[in-house]
Task: structure prediction
Amino acid sequence: MLNHLRLSRPHSSNGKKPTQRPKRAGRRGSDTMLPLIIIGMGIVASLIEPKFASLDNLTNLARQMMPLLIMAVGQAFAIISGGLDLSLAAVMSLAGVLGVLAMAEYGAASGIVVMLLTGLVMGGVSGFVIAYFKTSPLVVTLGMLSVAQALALILSGGVPIYSIHAGYAQVVGFDDWLGIPVMVWIGVLFTCLGAFLLRQTVFGRYVYAIGSSTSAASKSGVNVRRNIMLVYMVSGLCAAVCGIVLTAWTGSAQPVAAPNLTLESLAAVVLGGVALTGGAGGIRQVVYGVVILSMLSNVMNMVGVSAYYQTLVIGIVIILAVILDRLRDRGQEG
Result:
């Protein structure tokens, strides 16, 4: 029990306290600067395009934000634990295809369960290989990307599946509750659940401990292998939930659905202030990053920027996010 209480402040072998707390303190600037950036972007966007601040557009922006937000939460778990997950968009596509095929035979509820199980299984396989064979998360999840994408293409015949359950598509994709779209409620729910897991549970403390130092966490009594596997099951589950939302919203199961969403989730997590080296950051920072990227995309759509240039801008943002992460680390070292 004492080991559980000490995990947030493990000691290194030289007797000094770890750098986890300074890392968190060094990134508190994101909690001040990013909200100001979001407010500034909102003001500038409203001046450029007055319709940006309309209720209809803000509702549409919230809908657009949810798939990225849900996926970024899963990506945050992987990165905070010291890894990353490049297979999220492919797992999302596979979950959508399997879920829609199951719906045609057994109904909407069964299809949703199949989607969730697909995410858990694919994430569990990635986590098992990473944890028990001590392999690179980048290589393993890249391989899982190919496996999941190939399975989605094989099962769908390489074409989108439009015969989805009408009630499921209507409720999840377009209905609202208390004036707020159901898909927004789903995104907010999973975001709050992710924040609770990271900050209020023993599992969350294990994730931070593993990301800070795998060896120190192991010496403190943490079952590192099991918890790494659980981390990737969480990220896979988030990919599946993203598939549930996106499939309902688009009205189809795409075998190659939103392939850039994985990189955008990575950019959002790092842009928000989560350390690429692991062990620092939180869901609040992820929300900041998602809001910035979503607002940027929304404004470019409203002013008629070509999709090609939008892809260029997102790529530049990813590079700048990595540079910003490195500058944060240098500032902490200094």
